[in-house]
Amino acid sequence: MLNYYPIGRGSASTTIPRETAWIDLAEPTAEELARVEGEFGLKVPSREQLDEIESSSRLRSEGDRLYLSMPVGTAHEQIDRMPTPVGFVLSPDLLVTVRFRELRAFLKVRDSLTPKDSASSTRTFATLLEAMVDVEADVLEKIARDLGDISRRVFQRIDAGTRRAPRLNRELRGVLSTVGDAGEHLSQIRESVVGLQRIIGFAVEAGQKWLGGEIRARLDTARQDLSSLSDFEAHLSGKTQFLLDATLGFINTEQNDIFKVLTIVSVVGIPPTLIASMYGMNFHNMPELSWPWGYPYGLGVIAASIVLPILWFKLRGWW
Question: Do both 92 and 239 map to the same domain?
């Protein structure tokens, strides 16, 4: 879809007004790309070019025209989707954006514009980057709240009488999946934050002559905000790794407890089995066969062979 601002929206007219400050190409078709390139004499990067990871491909200038690109993570509810690239072609009189998914920052800026707005390309560029910084900050705040809830779930006191081991293991596995999703989302946010930092730094340096003092000041403020977001993201990544290790530790502890019980049961069962098998042999010269109390004696020895190992494990604190 091709949208242009602030003159109008949509692509109903045969030509785009030359006074247009921002052309937004959302999942553009080949015809829309060719139309913008033909009318404005610029090269719009393709999806393959925007996906390239070399710094020279993501940040380059041709005269007064800047070609910028960066990856943008998915929404928190769509963590199974891959990040998508977004591209900017910035010049003193025109901003062209290329994206392949609806982005909250673009919706926010687009909905705030009216046909009477007289925004310039540079001012729109700064507004878009500020909106993207705000979106990343909101997402980090949500992840921080989610991790706080997970932390309380993981480290809360567990009543063994109300939570059986299978149920607890299922809960811990669910927590493990949630923590893994948070880690993946933080990884995508890290890529977006780094991309924004590089774009702002390059734009301020390459467009120093025509950006204007106001725009440079706004971009410097956004860069400072990104620095704080980067530090906060690093903190959340560390917390995610800690919760991941803690959850795995609890799962291993629960599994070790199960194996410990099975080991104790097997050890306790060996002596009575040995005694029963010994007295189960049908030899003629077995004095216990003629004892009046031989049968109770055998049962008592078997019971003692069970109780004594259990008491030993209890005294040693192994059970």
Answer: yes
Q: How many CB atoms lie within 10 A of CB 217?
A: 13
Instruction: Give the integer Cα–Cα distance in Å for 155 and 44.
Output: 52
DSSP calls for 11-41: S-SSS--TT--EEEEES--HHHHHHHHHHHT
d(CA 198, CA 161): 55
Has residue 80 got a pLDDT over 70? no
What's the rounded Cα separation, in Å, for the pair 294 and 277? 15
**Chain centre distance of CA 178:** 9
Nearest residue to 22 (alpha-carbon basis) of 133, 135, 100, 99: 99
Structure tokens at 72: 């943008």
Residues 309 and 167 in one domain: no
The CA angle 14-17-19, to the nearest 5 degrees, is 175
Cα dihedral 84, 173, 156, 77, rounded to 10, equals 20
Q: What is the DSSP letter of 75?
A: P
| pTM value surpassing 0.85 | no
Per-residue model confidence (pLDDT) at position 87: 93
At 102 the three-state DSSP class reads coil
Mean pLDDT across 45-55: 86
* Cα–Cα distance measured from residue 272 to residue 278, given in angstroms and rounded to the nearest whole number: 10
Alpha helix (H) ranges present in 113-164? Answer: 121-155
Helix boundaries (H) for 68-120 = 104-112
Name the residue among 243, 241, 262 with its Cα closest to residue 251.
Answer: 243
What single letter denotes the amino acid at residue 199?
I
Domain holding 287, by residue range, is 258-316
Q: Are residues 216 and 271 in the same domain?
A: no
Q: What is the CA radius of gyration of the chain?
A: 34
